[in-house]
Amino acid sequence: MTAIRERLARSGSNKTYDKTCLHLTEEEVARRVRAGEKSVVRLNDSNLPIRPPPTDLVFGNLKDAHASLSTDPILLKTDLFPTYHLACVVDDHEMGITHVLRGEEWLLSYPLHLDLYACLKLKPPQFAHIPILLNPDGTKMSKRKGDVQVIDYIRQGWEPHAVLNWLALAGWGAKHEVPLPTHSSEASSHPARHGKLLQNAPDSTSLMTLPEMIKEFELSALTQRSSSLDPMKLEYLNKHHLMRIWSTPDGLQSLAERAHDTIKAAFTTSSHTNISYIKDGRITTLRDIVRYGSFFFVDLDLDSDKACDMLKRVKPEQRAATLDLAISAVENTLPEQWGRANFLELECKELEAVEVPYKVFMTVLRHALCGQKDGPAVADVARVIGQQRTLERLRNSRSHLGF
């Protein structure tokens, strides 16, 4: 076969087979089989039945690209097992498949599959070829590069509903005119696709539940170009899915229960890992509680590099004035008022008197309560850790000044 293909290529032909065996008699075929010669079964592409041109639910009307197919494609291999092309056609028919959704790389094989349906006198299902998903850098997703299995994202702490939301919206958001089918039988099976119909779809960060996705999804609203998976959109969707869950008491309780074991394992000596305490967090994924919120559960190391970097542009006297003010405000707040009071409002009442810039003021407080730049709002941290721990941390930070 290699020699045949090379000879055809040298002659300028784009064929891949010279149909050598097409004219063998039945007797010759039987003799060769008895002699143990290997054989295959091919589709004679020079005698195909007439059928409608290919139509796709995403790409619309397509051209028959027979030139891209091999000559007389093999249907049964030398081991008598069917090729994928024959197997998928027979299998889909036997299972009563009405719609086939597959990657756009199968567009090249689409004419062959329609030929097989026509040869077998079977009604083909409707086809939708879906543009492939790409990495953020535009390369094709691969199991050798990055996370390509859904379970990989679940293991990293992303919410299942957020991942589903993210994947469903990748490439779903087109607003384009759907072409009119060219064949009457096709037109009757696609009543919603007559004429020029402008399809509407959600934008790529719409927060959607599974029932909402099922209700609104429309294949004709998929884009006809490959889409990249933007991790920033997953962060956005995941955070807002969590916000939707914790907006109800039962949802917040369920999130705290899910996070409890992970937090307990990460901070084994902490006395602040009970579920009621965890319920006050604000995060993008549940794993963020451990990754970025260690200051909720363990004592701070104000001598760490990240803690010291926060105070590089803060004068010692500014730090002292801020902490003295904060300590006084917390000490003068009654315990029963703490849950209702806004920590920052308590502090800001006397801010003008100490003549400390607001940015410096906030940096000193975040340093004292969190020991790091990133995290929830300072007022939220103070509310979560409580009045006594807030006061202890402010005093601890003040004692580090040594004057």
Characterise the protein shown here.
This protein is mainly alpha-helical. It contains 19 helices and eight strands. The strands form four sheets. Strands 1-4 form a two-stranded antiparallel ribbon. Helix 6 packs across helix 9, helix 14 (316-331) packs across helix 18 (358-369) and helix 18 packs across helix 19 (378-399). The longest helix is centred in the last third of the chain and has 22 residues, at 378-399. The radius of gyration is 33 Å and the shape is elongated. The relative contact order is 0.07.
Described by strand count, sense and barrel closure, the largest sheet is:
2 strands, antiparallel
CA radius of gyration is: 33 Å
Q: Which H/E pattern describes the elements?
A: HHEEEEHEHEEHHHHEHHHHHHHHHHH
Q: What is the tally of beta strands? A: 8
Concise description?
The chain is mostly helical and 403 residues long.
Secondary structure blueprint with pairings:
Blueprint: H1 2-10, H2 26-34, E1 41-42, E2 55-56, E3 60-61, E4 74-76, H3 84-94, E5 99-103, H4 110-119, E6 126-130, E7 133-134, H5 150-155, H6 160-169, H7 184-189, H8 210-216, E8 227-228, H9 231-245, H10 249-266, H11 275-278, H12 288-292, H13 305-309, H14 316-331, H15 335-338, H16 343-348, H17 351-354, H18 358-369, H19 378-399
Parallel strand pairs: 5-6, 7-8
Antiparallel strand pairs: 1-4, 2-3
